[in-house]
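G., the chain you wanted modeled:
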Amino acid sequence: MSNSKHQIVVIGGGTGGIMVAAQLLRAKKGLDVAIIEPSEQHGYQPAWTLVGAGLMKKSDTIKPEKKVMPKKATWIKEYVETINPDENEVVLKNGDKITYDYLIAAPGIQINLDGIEGLKETFGKNGVCSNYVDPDYTWEVLQNTKSGVALFTQPATPIKCPGAPQKIMYLSADYFRRNNRTDVQPVFATPGTVIFGTEPFKTELTHYINDVYNIPQRYGYKLVKVDGEKKEAHYERMALPDGRTDYVVNDERNAAGCIGYVWDGQEQYVVEEENNHIDELKDGTHFIIKFDMLHLAPPQSAPSWFQKTKLANPDGPNKGWMAVDEGTLQSRYYPNVFGVGDVTDLPTARTGAAIRKQAPTIVKNLLNVMDGKEADYKGYNGYSSCPLVVSHNRMLLAEFKYGNVRSSDPLLSKFFDLGKASYPMWLMKRYGLPMLYWQAMLKGYQF
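Predicted structure as tokens:
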């Protein structure tokens, strides 16, 4: 066991931690910055959607952590056990203690495969896959799906990149179409109540899911159990807002009443028409969808160890997530601590694009605090974006800020209709954004 001290300690060597550290070191010479990160590899996870659809190789999205670590930062290659902010102290799993003057918390998000009954036992087999964990297996499952239902779903918990469950759905539907797999029926089931919360992106995505791919949708569907051997996804219906009852959307046969229901005393089975591949039944409070392929975003949360620290919200709807000011990113409890990225309780989408706008705000406010001033620069307005890939050569760049208000880039808007999916945006997703990530964002450049 040993003790050491650094002026600024950054927890996490992912997008948020590396970006803030790199910008700090560019902004002021001579800073003593340490980054705590146990991983040997750094992944560009936004591209894993493309890996899962066979449009990129995973090896092209991975680099050694040492390649992205700022040269002037001290790399502490260890796991964090806890944070004691009253003592300005980080305790590592090996027992070492690191003290700090200022702390940047960027530990990311935790995937909880045991958050849904049966998921952990069947994950990675039986056609149950996730780009969040293993996009190579998603691609394997996609290629092997020749008929039946390809079900795309997500949990009721917050998740990083909430558009990702849709992206792989569109890419899969495009793949099935291009390969003449007419016997595969994609289905989208979500605990959400709309396809997207911001216009005009909502209208454009509605066009793709209904008119282009004709995908049946289930809204207010909370996934509670996965039975991989039986290939069943069990849902409970959540209340929809404003008294709505449109749980089932774009299923004309159901809407027209052409499908009846038959009770056998225990279960209510759908009587299917010819060419209707959706096999949904009701068992008590569960609505069960049979699948041949299941892609899901697994349940997620702040890291378990972080939830127990004094930096996390102790109760309320954001319990466990880091409590930060929405504009300054400063901890609401400790003025010498800032939070960035997925671990925070900010009411916006958890994406790398959000971090790109959060990092400069943190840097400016932290330098103010170091100069004895207030962290009063409310530079972050909730900006985030979802580069929604809707086919192998079309992408919709959905940008927004707090309140689901559209926030499209004014320069790009002069040249492109950003309310529509387009080929130039696809080129930006496939080639431009990865280059900007590796060559600019992680090196501390602001844009």
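DSSP finds twelve helices and 26 strands in the chain.

Shout if anything looks off.
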